[in-house]
Amino acid sequence: MTLLKKFPILHNGWFVTATALFVVDRLCKYWSLRGHSYFVGEAVAFWYFRNTGIAFSLPLASAIFWPAAITIFVLLAVLFARAFRSDFTRAGLYWMVLLGANSNLMDRWYTGATSDYLIFFNRSAVNVADGMIIVALCMLCFAKPSRQVNAADS
């Protein structure tokens, strides 16, 4: 039995892509925390930036952040589980959001801040996990369900 027959979910590229990007993000965070830095022209640089805020480095107290983050994460997990039953594309996109969020939450839990490492124009600091979340959420807004389960089939 081939791997694709045993695990049909692997036919959907979103799961594999999300998992690969999660690994890349974790490795980049590891390298940036170890002091590695690189410059690609004047527009892009790679170095560690400690982001203690939420999106766009906006400050938010931990007493508000953690309950909100856990609630949102659980909601996303429920949406993923529901989509997994009927729409692998939508489930794969939720998987990408969950892995991106998980990577940033792991940073915040272990270091007290999110590790950003891609610096654009010396002003904006982001990481691959941020990109995963943004791209997947945008695609979820515009994605049409690939297969609907109607009430008669349930």
Describe the protein.
By secondary structure, the chain is α+β, with helices and mostly antiparallel strands. The chain has one domain. It has 5 helices and 4 strands; from the N terminus they run H-H-E-E-H-H-E-E-H. The protein has helices at residues 3-6, 13-33, 62-86, 88-111, 128-142, and strands spanning 38-40, 44-51, 114-120, 124-126. It has a 4-stranded antiparallel β-sheet with strand order 1-2-3-4. A hairpin with a 3-residue loop joins strand 1 and strand 2 (44-51). Helix 2 packs parallel to helix 4 (88-111) and helix 4 runs antiparallel to helix 5 (128-142).
**Oligomer kind:** single chain
| Strand residues, percent | 5-15%
Anisotropy-based shape: globular
Structural class: alpha+beta
The biggest beta sheet reads: 4 strands, antiparallel
The radius of gyration is: 18 Å
What spatial order of strands do you see in the largest sheet? 1-2-3-4
Number of strands: 4
Number of helices: 5
Q: Could you state the order of secondary-structure elements as H and E?
A: HHEEHHEEH
